[in-house]
Design a protein that fits this description.
It is built from eleven helices and 24 strands. By secondary structure, the chain is α/β, with parallel strands linked by helices. It is globular and about 65 Å long. The relative contact order is 0.12.
Length: 422
């Protein structure tokens, strides 16, 4: 693998046959997460495809010319022409492999695949999930000299990293940007010594055996497992939602609100998330129409008072979405009046859905005792019904789900495990 500059680009890329090029930056956690995968795949595919890296900050003109606006970004070329899809952000190994395989004959892909050697890594503790609960557990465990690996299908941070502002985390007088709070948590845990396996595909989880398989070939084994996989946004279930996810429908205001400057937006929901995120979206959008199924909002009173004082936001009660379609660049939301059953249409530039969350337990729910909502039951030390398996954060059955409660859960589980392993 070779690092190039923009001066070398025409020769090694334009005339270089099959090439993959990584635009990376310094002080870039996603770039760090990609580096080891990129290096390992260069050893597998390096005889067929040239692997290159380029420092984006020192080659901005070329990056702008190619339309590269974030790091890392992987571009795939064949005889100077860009092929396959661009990959950016928390890039998974499977995504890179899919693109590389598309550039090679089937028989060569099969030969390379046969060269992949399964590996086994031993740890004291595996933490599944890198939100506040998992990061805190990792911090306490590494400080206790417990060999720990932290695994996540995305980048560290959890929902906090996509929260625009956190104003109630102890120790900070001024509100903190969610991405910075989660970044600082992650860096603290990493610098302590916790091993990170992030932006990976979790292939299999065996809680009884304490084994986790990632990226189809690497088996992680441990004496204890902490489940910290959190929750995912609930879908509305309306027709068209899946088709327009990321193409007009969003679940993250921090990620997407900036694209709606002086535009009109529909928000689905009426709880804390919907109310607080609508307030944030109003910094950009010119008008927000909230659709709520009940006769009043369920968010806390402070958030409601702020929302009702905002002239950009209108709340429509007793309505639910029934379908989403798109005409040109505009989203059409069909809503039903739950009192009259009348169907009406709302035209907007985008839709945000904030109607709660569901527990991320699909890979390992068998054998765990759950509550009626599908969350994991634990005892006061965060132990689950399976010996040696703990759970922390939003994934567990509890009354309040906050950053501070997740951090407390992670602390308790880590201390309990450290004492067990003494």
């Amino acid at each position: 693998m070779k690092e190039i500059t923009s001066i070398e680009f025409p020769k090694v890329v334009t005339d270089g046959g099959k090439v993959v090029l990584d635009f990376y930056s310094s002080e870039c956690p996603p770039c760090e997460a990609l580096a080891s995968k990129y290096e390992a795949l260069s050893e597998l595919y390096g005889n067929d495809i040239t692997f290159l890296k380029i420092f984006r900050q020192q080659n901005r003109e070329l990056a702008d010319q190619l339309g590269v606006s974030s790091s890392p970004t992987l571009l795939f070329f064949e005889n100077g022409q860009e092929v396959a899809s661009r990959l950016t952000g928390g890039i998974k190994r499977s995504e890179i492999i899919s693109n590389l395989n598309s550039m090679l004959p089937n028989e060569r892909v099969a030969a390379i695949r046969s060269e992949i050697i399964p590996t086994i890594s031993e740890y004291d503790v595996i933490i599944l999930g890198a939100g506040p609960g998992g990061l805190t557990a990792g911090l306490y465990l590494c400080q206790a000299k417990v060999n720990t690996v932290l695994v996540d299908i995305a980048l560290p941070g959890g929902h906090v990293s996509t929260t625009h502002e956190v104003s109630n985390y102890p120790g900070f007088i001024e509100p903190q940007a969610g991405y910075m709070l989660s970044h600082n948590m992650s860096e603290q845990t990493k610098l302590c010594g916790t091993i990170y396996k992030v932006a990976v595909d979790v292939t299999r989880v065996d809680l009884e055996k304490k084994e986790v398989v990632i990226d189809e070939f690497e088996t992680l084994r441990a004496k204890r497992i902490i489940i910290a996989t959190g929750t995912s946004p609930n879908p509305s279930g309306a027709v068209g939602e899946k088709e327009f996810k990321g193409k007009g429908i969003s679940y993250c205001s921090t990620c997407d609100a900036k694209y709606f400057v002086d535009k009109e937006v529909v928000v689905i929901g009426g709880g804390n998330a919907a109310v607080e995120e609508s307030e944030f979206i109003s910094r950009f959008a010119s008008k927000i129409t909230m659709i709520h199924q009940f006769d009043k909002l369920s968010a806390n009173k402070v958030a409601q008072d702020k929302l009702f004082a905002n002239p950009k936001i209108q709340v429509v009660y007793h309505h639910e979405p029934r379908s989403f379609t798109k005409v040109g660049n505009q989203m059409i939301t069909e809503v039903e009046n739950l009192q009259t059953h009348e169907i009406s249409k709302l035209t907007s530039d985008g839709v945000f859905i904030f109607i709660g969350f569901k527990a991320n337990i699909d890979l390992f729910k068998d054998g765990l005792e759950l509550d009626s909502w599908g969350y994991i039951k634990t005892d006061e030390d965060m132990r689950t019904s399976i010996p040696g398996v703990f759970a922390v954060g939003d994934i567990i059955s509890k009354k309040y789900r906050q950053i501070t409660t997740a951090v407390a859960d992670g602390t308790i589980a880590a201390i309990a495990i450290a004492r067990e392993l003494e």
